[in-house]
Write a structure and sequence with these properties.
The structure is a single chain. With 183 residues, the protein is of the alpha+beta class. Helix content is 53%, strand content 9%. It contains six helices and four strands, in the order βββαβααααα. Strands 3-2-1-4 form a four-stranded mixed β-sheet. The longest helix has 26 residues. It is elongated, with a radius of gyration of 25 Å. This is Polyhydroxyalkanoate synthesis repressor PhaR. Pfam families: PHB_acc, PHB_acc_N.
Length: 183
Amino acid sequence: MSDNDKPLLIKRYASRRLYNTETSDYVTLEDIAGFIRGGREVKIVDLKSGDDLTRQYLLQIIAEHESKGESVLPLGVLNDLVRSYTTQATSVVPQFLAMSFEMLQDGQSKMVENMSAMNPLAKMPGFEAMQAQQQAFIKAMTGGLAGNWGSSSPTREEGGDEDLDEIKKQLAELQTKLSKMRK
C-alpha cells in the first residue's frame, strides 16, 4: 500500500497544535485542506485519548471557508442539514449526501471526457503540434508572463526574437494549411 493510499495521520496535541506524522512538522487547517484538495485522505486523532477528530476538523475547515465568503452550501441546504439532526432523517442524509457527491464527481469526469471527444479538432492530424505552437505563440506574445497553460510559474526563454520569428513562421504555415483544408 503506497503512502497516498492510506490516510495521512495528523495528531492533535494537548496544546491543540496539529502534527503531521509523515513530515514531522506542525500543520494548519489550511495545510490540511490543501492535502485533501490534492486528493489525500486525512485522519486526525487526539494524541492523548486516541479519539478520531477528523469530522470535527473537516467541519471547521468548511465553516472557515463559508465565513470567508467562499460559499458552496446554499442557506436552504444548511437549514435542511440542521433540521436533519433533529429528525429521524439522520439515518438517510449521510448516504444521500455521499451518493450525491459521487454522482457529481462522476458527472464532471464524464463531461470532461465528452468535451474532449466532441472537439472535432482533437482528431485532426497534428492537433497536438498546433496546440504546442499556440502555447509557444502566447508565451512569446506575453513575454513569458503567461507561462505554460496550467502552470503558475512564468518563464522567459533566451533568444526571444528568434523564437518569435520561428513562431511567426509556424503560424503562417498553419494558416496556409487551414486555408487549403477549407477549400
